[in-house]
Amino acid sequence: MNEIEDRRARLSVEKRALLEKRLKGLTAAAATPVAEPRPAAEPKPETGPAKAAADAGFASELGAGAVPPVDREIWRAMIEAGTQEAGRRAVARDLVADAAHEPKHDEQAAAFLSATLCQLGVFQQAGETRTIAGLVAGCRVLPKYEKALRRWMVALVEEGLLAQDGDTYTARQPIPTPELAALMTDEHRAYYAKNLAAVLTGDTHPLEFYLPGGSSASIESSYTETPIFRYCNGISAAVVEAQARNLPEGARLRMLEIGAGTGGTTKSLLPLLPADRTVFLFTDVSKFFTDLGRQRLGEYPFIRYRELDVELDPVPQGYPAGSFDWIVAAHVLHATRNIEETLRHILRLLAPGGVLLLLEETRFQRKYNFSMGFLPGFDHFEDYDRRPLHPLLSTAKWREALLTAGFVDFATFTQPGSAADVLGVDVMLVRAAGGF
C-alpha cells in the first residue's frame, strides 16, 4: 500500500466517503485509487531548512503566554456547565424521537441481514453449519469484509437464528425470508435491503449506500444538523466556554483539534474563543481536509492548519511536546489502529494539567452492520484484546483506557437511559496529570 492509500485508509468512514466522492465520484472511487488533490497555487511541502524554520516559528508561537493548568474551581465550572447543557439537550423533542426509532432500526437491520443470507443461499436448512472463512470462500465475499461478516453472525445469534460454537455457526432453523416491504421506511433503507449481497461480493460499492443519490450533502451536514450531534456539540461548547470565561489575564489558550474533517464540531467552539488570546490548530491526517478548513473558516484569524497523524509520534511531525492546553477529538479516535498508542501520543501533546475533550460513539448499533460498517476506516482497529468485534468503546471502557494511559479526573455527560445513551454517543472530559 503506498503512502497516499495508507493515509486514506486511516480516515474515519465519513471523511473517507466524502473524500472519495469529491475526488472522482462513486464509480471511479469504487475502481481506481486516486491521489488527494492539492490546489494549483499551493506550494510544495517545506523540507530541510525551510521546514525547520517553519517548525521553529510554530513552536515559538505556541510557547507564548501558556494557560496555567486547570485548577479545581475551573474544572468544577466546566463539569457543571456540561452537565447543565446535557440535561437541557437530552430532552430535546427531535433527539427523543430519534431514540424512540432505534428498536425499529434494530428490527430492520436484522431483517436486512437475514434477507441477504437468503440471497446468498446459505443457512437454508436447519443444522446447516458455516464458518466465516467458509462464507468468504463459498459466497465470493471480499476478504476485507470478514470483520463485518463476523458482526452479522453475532447479530443473528442474538436473534436466536444461529447457534455459535467458536468460529462455527449453525442454523437453528432455515433462515427466514422476511417481509421487507413492511420494514421499508424510506427509499434509502430499501436500497440497503436490495443490495447488501452485492456489496459483500464487490459488485456494488458501499459509497452508494453512504452517499444516497450520489450526494455528499448528508455527510457534510450531519455533524451540525443531526440531533445527536447537536447534543454533543452543544455540551462541548458549554464546557469550552467555561474555560474561556476563566482564562487568566495575559494567558493564551492553545487548542488543537484532531481529525477536524469538515469542521462540524469546530464551528460550535470557535465563536466562544477570545480571538486575541487563542491559537487553534485545525489538524487532520489528510491535506484535503486542512485545505477545506482553511477555505471555510477564514473569518477566524487565530486558526492554524496543519496535517497530523495521531497514530504516529507527533514530535517528529513538528508538534512540540507539551504545547497544548486543550485537545479536541470528535468522533475520530475509534478509527485509529490502537487506542493505547493513540492516547500516548495525545498525552505527549498536552501540557501538564491540559484537557482532552472527547466525543465518541459508545454503542455499536445494528444499523452500522451496513453502510459505514463496510468501509475500510471503520475496521482499521488492530487492538483485538480491547476491541474484539468492532472499533467502538463504551463509556466505561473509554474511562478505563484513559485512566490507564495516565489521564486523570474523568467526567462524562450522557446519563444512562437517556435518549443520547440509547443513540450511543457520549461527551467525555479528562485531564493530563499536573495542576491540582
Describe it for me?
By secondary structure, the protein is α/β, with parallel strands linked by helices. It contains 17 helices and ten strands. A seven-stranded mixed beta sheet has the order 6-5-4-7-8-10-9, with helices on both faces. A three-stranded antiparallel beta sheet has the order 1-3-2. Helix 11 packs across helix 12 (227-245). It is elongated and about 75 Å long. The model is unreliable at 24-45 (pLDDT under 50).
Kindly summarize this structure in a few lines.
The chain has 436 residues and is α/β, with parallel strands linked by helices. The chain contains 17 helices and 10 strands. The chain has 2 domains: 3-24 and 64-91 and 222-432, Rossmann fold (3-Layer(aba) Sandwich); 102-214, no CATH class.
- The CATH level-2 architecture of the largest domain is identified as 3-Layer(aba) Sandwich
Strand content: 5-15%
Task: Please give the oligomerization state of what you see.
Answer: single chain
What count of domains describes the coordinates? 2
The CATH class label of the largest domain is: Alpha Beta
Uncertain segments: 24-45
Strand arrangement in the largest pleated sheet: 6-5-4-7-8-10-9
Percent of residues in helices:
40-55%
User: Secondary-structure element order, as H and E?
Assistant: HHHHHHEHHEEHHHHEHEHEEHEHEHE
Quick one: CATH superfamily of the largest domain? Vaccinia Virus protein VP39
Count of strand segments: 10
The global form is: elongated
CATH topology of the largest domain: Rossmann fold
Q: How many strands, which pairing sense, and closed or not: the largest β-sheet?
A: 7 strands, mixed
Mean pLDDT equals 85
Based on helices, strands and strand pairing, what is the structural class?
alpha/beta
Please give the count of helices: 17
* Estimated radius of gyration: 23 Å
N-C termini distance: 46 Å
